[in-house]
Structure formats: C-alpha cells, structure tokens
Design brief:
Strand content: 15-25%
Number of helices: 9
Order of helices and strands: EEEHEHHHEHEEEEHEHHH
Radius of gyration: 20 Å
Helix content: 25-40%
Distance between the termini: 45 Å
Strand order of the largest sheet: 4-3-9-8-7-6-10-5
Length: about 290
C-alpha cells in the first residue's frame, strides 16, 4: 500500500496527495583537460523536505523559519510520483525559465529518444550550451549553475529528471512538476537514486572559441584578457599573447572554483570565468557572495 504525503502551499489547505536503490559519485568525463577525482559513495537514504514558497527568490536553505513549514517525505516517493516521460520536458522548461529564456520547446524535439540529444537541441534553441557532468555533486556545486540530474525510478527503473535550483554544502533544492514547487534533499538521499549523470547549461557570453590557448584565435585571447582585467587582474597586458600573467590569472580562477589547475580555458573554466562576472544574468545555485569555494 502506498503511503501519502502532501505538498504544502502557503495560505491553502494541502490538496495534492500522491502515493508512494543506486549511487555513483566517481570520475568525471568532461573535457580531458578538466577532470575530477573520485568522491566517496554514500550509504543510506534520508528523508527530505518539500515546500512551495510564497517568494521563490528567497533561498529556503538560508531561512530555518521557512524550512520549519515543510512536510517530510522520501526521494523515492517523489520519483515514483513524477511522470517519467514528462519529467525531461518539465526539467528543461525549468532550466529555460531560470535563464530567462522562452519556455516553449519545439514540438519537433518531443520524439527524440536520446535524452542528451533532446537537452542539447532544446538548449541550443535558446543559445545555451550543455555540459555533461558524471558522478560528482561537488563539481555541480563548483560550477554553480542550475543543473538537471538524472535519477533512477525505484519502481520502473526509468530515468526521471529533476532540476536543481539551489544548493548548500550538503543538500540541494529541486524544482518539482508543479509551478513553484520546491523539494529539498540531502546528498545521501540524492546519491542513492542518482544515476551519476547530470546536465549543466551555460551561455558563452563572450563567444570564446576553442580551448585557450591550445586551439583558438588571437581575438579570443584578447577577449579573455579584457575579461580577466574586468574581474580584478589589473596587471594583464592587452594583446594576443597568452603570457605568464594570463596563465597565472586563469590558474587562480580554476583553483578558486575547484577545477583542475592546468591553465587551459576549456568549457568548465569558461563557466568559472563567467561566474566571476557578477553583472552577467546567470542562474546560480548559490549567490556569488555565498560561493562554496
């Protein structure tokens, strides 16, 4: 018999009752110049919390009084209740909304079987780029962007997708199937059902080309130097040469954001550099002044 839980909507009587395992946190497979180390496996699941906040721009993780209003339930219940076929559409629409983009996804994409291909094409329609993350919740936090995580449904073992919209150092807030629904889960619960696959979406604001300096043009190096100056590295000389001071500034940025320190500007380092620019409209998991590293 399924147990039931209710989503709490402020000012209303709880009305939605719905009924009622896999872990991977190992190596990343992003750009070969930007990899990660193994992280420990989690063990037992824990209960999580859900809330539909009256104001979604206020972080639930930073307001204990708001957290006291929530109802407890397990991630397994959410995965069983979430429509598997529709979850990737809802997750992608959440990402687009967080980026301030049009939520409408072209109908031609609905029939695409590959989930990654679906996400890539849906993102591309709105000028976003997908970066796949494998096995590291820490890497998701370091990149500090809203991300779609793939979970394994405990009853059907079909993939269910949820979008992480906020994070602390030990838990994440996910957007639910309903508008403004928020679900808080700690890392142990996440790891138990997470397949280890996640999709981070970013925007190449300055149109950096290739991997700097390995495969790029001088104009990308000049743009990079202007960018570095703008975020505080004032000793950078503006020209098309990737010199020692430029490499040192890039390495400092990589270290700050928990990336491998190699001096190469690939996709992950571009994300980190953009995250340093507070004026850019980026949907962070953690506000810039609260960054975890």
């Amino acid at each position: 018999k399924r147990s039931e839980f209710s989503f709490l909507i402020p000012g209303k009587t709880p009305a939605l009752n719905i009924g009622v395992s896999k872990d991977q946190d190992s190596n990343l497979e992003n750009h070969p110049l930007e990899t990660d180390k193994n992280l420990p496996h989690a063990t037992a699941p824990q209960e999580a919390t859900v809330e539909t906040p009256a104001q979604t721009d206020i972080s639930l993780l930073d307001h204990p009084a708001k957290q006291a209003e929530v109802t407890s339930f397990s991630l397994a219940q959410v995965l069983q209740a979430e429509p598997a076929d529709a979850s990737r559409m809802v997750a992608m629409q959440t990402v687009l909304a967080r980026w301030g983009a049009e939520r409408q996804i072209p109908r031609e994409l609905y029939s695409i079987q590959s989930n990654m291909e679906f996400f890539i094409l849906a993102a591309k329609q709105q000028g976003l780029i997908l970066e796949e993350i494998n096995g590291s919740l820490a890497r998701i936090r370091n990149l500090n962007l809203c991300a779609i995580l793939e979970f394994d449904s405990p009853d059907t073992h079909s993939p269910v997708f949820l979008t992480a919209v906020e994070a602390s150092d030990s838990s994440m807030i996910f957007s639910g199937h309903q508008t403004d629904q928020r679900m808080i889960f700690d890392d142990e619960a996440i790891r138990l059902y997470w397949t280890g696959r996640a999709y981070v979406f970013w925007k190449n604001f300055y149109n950096y080309q290739g991997i700097i300096p390995a495969s790029t043009q001088n104009d990308s190096i000049i743009t990079l130097k202007l960018h570095l100056r703008d975020i505080g590295y004032e000793n950078i000389e503006i020209n098309g040469v990737y010199d020692a001071s430029t490499r040192k500034a890039v390495e400092a940025t990589q270290a700050k954001h928990g990336l491998p320190v190699d001096g190469y500007v690939g996709p992950l380092t571009k994300i980190a550099l953009y995250n340093e620019k507070a004026s850019l409209p980026i949907p962070h998991l953690v506000a810039p002044m609260e960054t975890l590293h």
